[in-house]
Amino acid sequence: MALLAVLAACSTPDPGPTVEQAGQTLERHITEMMEQTGPEEIVVIDPGGKDVPCGSDGVKRTYAVRTTYNRFDDHLIAEMAGRLSTTWGYKVHEPYSAGSLRTTLKLAPARTSITVETPSDHEAKAAGETDCIPRG
Q: Most CB contacts within 10 A, which of 61, 65, 72, 136?
C-alpha cells in the first residue's frame, strides 16, 4: 500500500503556483525589470492584489506600472524584453515588430505574462497578468 501511495504521488503533475504566488511573482518581476532600466519615476497604475474572475471557476491577478525617463531610447522595449528573458527565462509570446510599440513575454512555470510598451518617447509601461488559475 505504501508503495502505491508513493507511486501515485510521483505521477501527480505539479499544479504550479497558486494565484497568490503567481501574482507576487508578477509584481516582483515587473518592478525589478523596470528599476533595472534606470527610470526617472515609477508609478503603479494597477496595484493588483485582487482576484479577477476568469474561465469557468478560475481567477487571475494583474499588476502594471508606468515609468518616465529623461532620455529617449528607441531600444527600450528590446532592453526590457531582454532583461525578462535573461533574468527569469521569459519567452516571447507576441513578438515586437517594426512599427509596433509593444511585445508580450510569458513565463509558463510561473504562470505569468508581461506586456512591455513605449507609448511615448520618454515613457514605458509594463502590464502583466497571471494565467487563469483554478480556485483552490
A: 61
